[in-house]
## 1
Amino acid sequence: MTEILKNDRDVVVPGDEIINSMDYLPGKNSFRKGNSIYSKRVGLVSVHGRVISVIPLSGVYIPKAGDMVIGKVSEIQSSGWIADIKSTDRAYLPVSGIREFVDTGKTDMSKIYAVGDIIYAKINVASQSSLQLSMMDPRARKFTSGRIVPISPAKVPRLIGKEGSMINLIKNKTNCRINVGQNGLVWFEGEKENLVTESIRIIERDAIYEGLTDRISELLEKA
Amino acid sequence: MKRKNDRKPGELRPIVAKVGVIPRADGSALFSMGRTTAIAAVYGPREMHPKRMQSADSAVLKTIYSMAPFSTSERVRPGPSRRSYEICKVTRQALEPAVFLEEFPKAGIYLFINIIEADAGTRTAGINAASLALADAGIPMRDLVTAAAAGKVGNDYFLDLEGKEEDETICDLPIAYMHNEKKVTLMQMDGDISPKDAKGVMDAAIKGCEIIYDIQKKALMEKWGYKKPQAKAAARAEPKKTAEPKKPAETGEKAKTKKAAPKKSTKKEVKK
């Protein structure tokens, strides 16, 4: 017996029963209890074939290997740096993770990255025991100017859009260079910085509605 | 025996539940029953401090309960007390079974409950607010935790006792309850009653929990739920057109803020 209680793209809260059937499997942010699948978080139901998952609408960033994040160097250690990436743990950037050769005994580590520097880095390892960053990525660098605006990490996929459609639209229309950190920090620098801030605010507020790309396009066209 | 404010024995006080009252927190909620008001804020999961309290296989739920000095007629001395330690502990234990703590090893989830107005039932109001705040913060949970108290006054089982009633009770029994699992995660009792009465009081409290559960869900949907696509389309259309009676005013406001926003941000930049 299959009983569908929530449809695709319905908003659910923790403990909401989504479906009462053994023909479906619980995916991300959902769990099975008895015959039913329940939601773990506030989010949107997403049905992919036989897998039912919930796309979260809130929550802090959970590190994933391969993600690009923006972090603030918070501590210098003998063979690396510690960066705050607004996540469940602090991230470690070892000297082996940067391009240039560093002789840790002779070099002043703060000459490379000082406390308070903002870096754009790739998450190299994200496991139970460690969270490591790497600058060995063409996109990775240190920010020396520009602005950083926070956005809810759950809404970062919306800011990027399908295959980068949204972020490319903003980049082209505002003439700004933009780097999105998956951890909910967005760096940008260019001509119309205020317009970028405004777009981010609108995307964050209206992330669950459809047709957002058209609205942003309209807004940027007008300005 | 008659109740204060002409309530029926199984009737709750008027409830206000609001999610997202503290913008800087990861999740927050206000829960008020009559003249008892609790505000809960959740931060995290983030790095656990102090480090020695970290748990290698699960997150730690750190609960802090405190009453505002002005919350009762007699001033409450700020800071931890024997009573607040106890409530922190029982609140944590009431919420832990509902949270998937094992998903965030080594992390800490910080939960702050502040009672800004107290008229009996602060621990239940605190748990209700906390469970909403945890859900708002996007922390994976099995279910929302709901709490309510009931007591025996005279020969009746009164639900959700208020301050004046609490003084006359034979017993007072707060419980926390998980709707889906049908499990009680907190049970305390003051007083002395027979097993039969204890069961009656408990059933009354569980009935109250079921009512609060629906209110909690509604409060969450108020913040996170969306209006039907038609209403959205109308709201997004020209602000001048009066497609719907309520929407145009809203969009008008939005349009204003849109214009004002860039100016504000430039000012801020200059200050920096």
## 2
Amino acid sequence: MAARGAGPAVSGRPGAPGPALPAEPEPRGSVARSVLGSPSLRLIGRRLLAAIPVLWGVTFLTFVVMNLLPGDAAQELLGINATPAEVKQLSLKLHLNEPFWVRYGNWLGGAVHGHLGNSLTSGDPVTTVLGQRLPVTFELVLYAFLISVVFAVPVALLAASKPRGIADRLSMVISMAGLSTAPYVLALVLILVFAVHLPILPAIGYVSPSQSIAGNIRSLTLPAISIGFGLFCFYARLLRADITAQMQAEDYVVTARAKGLQPRQVLVRHALRNSLFGLITVVGLNVGALIGTTVIIEQIFSLPGIGQELLQSINDRDLPVVEACVLIFAVVVVLANLLTDLLYAVLDPRIRYGRAIA
Amino acid sequence: MAAPLPDALRPDIAGTGADAGAGAGGLGRPGARRRGRARALEIWVPAGVLILIAAACFLWPLVYPVPPPVGGSILNAGLPPFSPGHILGTDPVGNDILSRLLYGGRVSFEVGVATALIGLVVGGLLGIVAGYQGGVVDAIVMRVLDVLIAFPSLVLALVIAEALGPSELHTIWAISFFSVPAFGRIARAATLRLREQTFMLAARLSGTGGRRMLLRHVVPNILPQLTTFALLGVGIAIILEGALSYLGLGIPPPGPSWGNMIALGAQTLTASPELVLIPSICLFVTVLCLNLLGDALRARWGVR
């Protein structure tokens, strides 16, 4: 969690007197200072600073665990028939014989300057390797997110518009079932139905968007559903519970009804708006868990994404590539959390992080 | 967080006895008794199914002899379901599927329960201490958990499984790296909420020591929340075990687990989909019951 004092503090109820505003006009020229000193920028700065030890810890942990693995890249590259002398020679060439701290220091020094090194197996720069892989994973995750949110919002609205009605119960049963389904099982069932019995979508392989946009979407549809269905169920349940709670308990709902708004308008304009906001948090915090799922799904559907690269590079003991993949995952998780907090602060003016503005 | 109260003591449910429904209008609440029964069903139906599945996995092979789950004869390979002697048929190397399902269920249950327990004890302890102590302890513990959360846990699990070699025990260790930070965060958040409560202040003012505070006041109050999460955790662990198996790093074949049965079956998905579907259904029903039970208990105990 956040460092002490950085937690969210909801300040001021609607009726309570707000903090006194600074009365004297600010002199010209202090605009830059006031922008730099703005609470949200300070928040970003503090969060980014707090992220540094976390990211460092992640890279260090990766280095340690990769060193615990038996065998090294030289052995993996040369295969089991290589003589010890050959292995030793290649280790020297790849600097694998240097002590742990020296290698970690070298890697870290490079990484801080933006050099993630070269792949030990192919010799290509790690950034090139990742540049080919990252878009696939990114596209997949985005597609899955889109599917889940696009379906979750209307389903939740439908369910919440009449709690305990047929639509509500049905959607809750389906979403409970979806939550209990392992993504890889869903993937296999989808392949069985939509690729084997009704051959309408490809089971494996990836078509890049430069070849064919439609082919690209088709090739990612089954994987994206495999990931997105679980998310959809999760979001739909969450949103429905939140909207129902708001419709029952919140004063603004009573006000909106009292001034004669249609129930549907109250639902969409007021309750949904407020609930979406809780959803954003969950989406942000969920990104980490999503990455694990992506690795498996990429494996099942043979998508050349970053998960597949990661598995391959762990097998090859290709430390620079593993480090880079793990670092990317960690950065995404940390950034997603930061972005969630910021969005929260932007969307809800009652939330102030640390010190209040005045 | 209200302490769990037996139904008989709850004023909203008790006292709406047999004649409540037929009683004079407005006195009794006719729905209450039905709601109470529905609530009990919500808990006992999934619990019952879980007990049945677990009993089948652990007791059936002791009571009623089944063929061994490994080392089947190739002569019996690929028998369809409902073959004599093999109710669910055999897999491509001639092992009895029912037997693999039962023995595999044992492994899946063991992995799920063990990782949830490790998470509950280790993560719970870390979270409670961090939340209760605050300050430096909190900062250090939470940073370490942050690293574990930001680290793609699957990678850690993969590396552990590969470094130590695949086995059931190592799978449990690997998956525990998921459960410990999750439990830690939940325990910490719950402890933080608790710290602000009046009864905690009262206890501290009356001179209760730190350890006693934790054991008598904090632990019992956050246990319902951790328990319901542990039920979900068992399900997640069982699914993760399958994911590791899928990557060849879970329970080493030929030893069965539901996860690696699915993974092995996926290789012959088109020819014999039942090899995937049968263990998938078991996995699904088990996880579904765990989720339903977790939800029902959460509602019953009033956990957020």
